[in-house]
Design brief:
By secondary structure, the chain is mainly alpha-helical. The protein has one domain. The protein is built from three helices and no strands. Helix 1 runs antiparallel to helix 2 and helix 2 packs antiparallel against helix 3. It is elongated.
């Protein structure tokens, strides 16, 4: 998604969620390996993935006219970001 756009496609949200999934998988394997470089790289990938997910979620919510659905979409994006954060802290 380009930074100035006000809308997002379904493909972009799918790509962003796949990226978050890959980041959490990588964080899990990095935590078990105990290599500092891998843990740092996984954390950076996780931050980047969550940031992109939140950007796409916000862009999708901007295009929704129904206020209830808009806030539900934003809340879901926030919930995923918090779950990823707490999963990382569990390692």
């Amino acid at each position: 998604m380009t930074p100035g756009r006000q809308s997002a496609t379904v493909e972009e949200i799918i790509r962003a969620t796949c990226s978050v999934t890959a980041a959490t998988t990588r964080a899990s394997s990095a935590a078990s390996s105990l290599y500092h470089e891998q843990v740092v790289a996984a954390a950076n990938l996780g931050r980047q993935s969550v940031s992109e997910l939140l950007r796409v979620t916000k862009a999708m919510a901007q295009g929704v006219e129904n206020a209830e659905l808009k806030y539900k979409m934003l809340g879901c994006g926030r919930d995923v970001a918090l779950q990823v954060r707490f999963e990382k802290l569990a390692f």
